[in-house]
Amino acid sequence: MKRAKRLIALLLAAALVFSLTACGSSSSDTTDAADDTTSAAAETETTDASAEEETDEAALYEQAAGNTYVIGTDTTFAPFEFENDEGEHTGIDIELFEAIADEMGFTIEWQILGFSASVAALEANQVDGVMAGMSITDERKEKYDFSDSYYDCAIAVAVAEDSEIESLDDLAGSKVVAKTGTTGSQYAEELAEEYDLELLYVEESSVMYQYVASGQAVACFEDYPIVQYEIARGNVSCKVINTSEYSYPTGMAVLSGNYPELVAAFNEGLARLTEDGTYDEILAHYFE
Ligand code: GLN
Q1: Type and span of the H or E element at 47
Q2: Whether the CB of 179 sits within 6 Å of ligand 1
Q3: Is the per-residue pLDDT at 218 higher than 90?
């Protein structure tokens, strides 16, 4: 009897290990696997541990309530942030973070600086965080703490709509433009050698599109949903000829170790707004 029990326990443990490796890292998967396969005692322990974690997390994010955070953002990076027809600076980043702040009881003071300027301001402690369609990359994770991701972006290469260029091969030997310090510029740098590209850098996405329109550059590098949005609303006459095979998650960043309560409050707020449909509603303002 004892032996049989031990065997069952072993089998269950093996099943647990298997299901954990097979399921990836989502926490709900892990919890399901534990519920299905562990003994009642172990289950109670798991529940206790996660309840404790939840309390710690709540104690942390509650510290954000009542605070004001200075947040750097981009100028024109529609639909994440841009000036609308009424002259208001709005977009997914602005609406989403404002909704999170409302939900979690803190206030945001926006600083519209541009992307690389926001990152520089973060490093100089002139802003507390950056919310600017910022890609979460391994390199950046060494310097910044990121919130959970709220979007995924691949990088697009776009040329003028009437251009005859249809592929990276056609682009070889051309002048191209990217925005300083972005993952788009990184992708351009990756391709520059292989395709013999001359790379120009500018500070604003809008300037990048002007370069392509005026022929100062043949192609630009931008997050795919951004350039696609601008094309769809008739703001830029470009077409996408290539997208990166990889895409990046997007998050709010603070300097490593700073404002952990803000990151926790962002994540909790994002989870609540995803659950209650607000996140989808905000996206629906920009994407059909
Ligand atoms: N997602 C890109 C990056 O993080 C571009 C961000 C931006 O231009 N606002 O590098």
Answers
A1: helix 40-62
A2: yes
A3: yes
